[in-house]
Amino acid sequence: MALAYADRVLKVDHAGEHGAVNIYRGQRLVCSWRDEALKRELEEFRAHEERHRAIFAAELERRGVRRCRSYRLCGLGGFVLGVLTGICGRASIAAVTVAVERVVLRHLEVQLRELEGVDAAAHAAISSILDDERSHHDRAAQEPRQGIFWPRVLKPAVSAATEFVIWTGMKL
Ligand SMILES: [Fe+2]
Ligand SMILES: [Fe+2]
Fold first, then answer.
1. In order along the chain (172 residues), what is the average pLDDT of each group of 10 residues?
2. Among 50, 94, 112, 118, which residue's CB has the most CB atoms within a 10 Å radius?
3. CA pair distance 63, 50, nearest whole angstrom
4. Which ligand lies nearest the alpha carbon of 54?
């Protein structure tokens, strides 16, 4: 039987959070020589993403819905993106966070609208992560060293990849 919209959304969001955990894990891994404030921020963001992933995992389990088939690929893709951008430094780290979170926030808002009055538990799960995602976006957007290259090259590529992950996840 085809999964309900809420179940598909929870699956995709769960896989997406796994991707996000791995972006920050990859970035943190390769920027050990960089400043302490950046490292602390990456660790803090990663802890948030782990909490989000656990929220969606618990909700999927409660419903007896299996995780998304894209789950492992999301983790791997996130990790590779994290390592590559972590090597390139602050500007690219901030550009990735802004690009990913912008797409994520837009999708979460659509999901919340669709689920309002339809599925209270799914709505509550998504609502509970919204403030964290907004703060990730806003804090990364404040990074003064965005440069010219990163926003131009990385943002469209990362936005497109994030859209693709969400689109395919909803089909799987
Ligand atoms: Fe998240
Ligand atoms: Fe986030």
1. 89 97 96 84 97 98 96 96 91 92 96 97 98 96 77 86 91 83
2. 94
3. 20
4. 1
* Predicted local distance difference test score (pLDDT) of residue 46: 98
32 Cα to the center of ligand 1, angstroms: 23
Question: Which of 167, 27, 14, 168 has its CA nearest to residue 97?
Answer: 27
Residues whose CB falls within 8 Å of the CB of residue 169, separated by 6 or more in sequence, listed in order: 8, 11, 12, 15, 16, 68, 70, 74
Say how many CA atoms lie within 13 Å of 78 toward its Cβ.
24
* CA distance linking residue 16 with residue 166, whole number of Å: 8
From the list 134, 124, 133, 103, the residue with the least C-alpha distance to 58 is 124
Exposure of 68 in the CB half-sphere (CA atoms within 13 A): 29
CA–CA separation, 55 vs 64, rounded Å? 14
Half-sphere exposure of 33 (CA within 13 A, CB side): 4
Q: What is the DSSP letter of 140?
A: H
**Ligand 1 centroid to residue 57 C-alpha, Å:** 13
Residue count of the chain: 172
pLDDT at 146: 67
Spacing, Cα 78 to ligand 1 middle (Å): 13
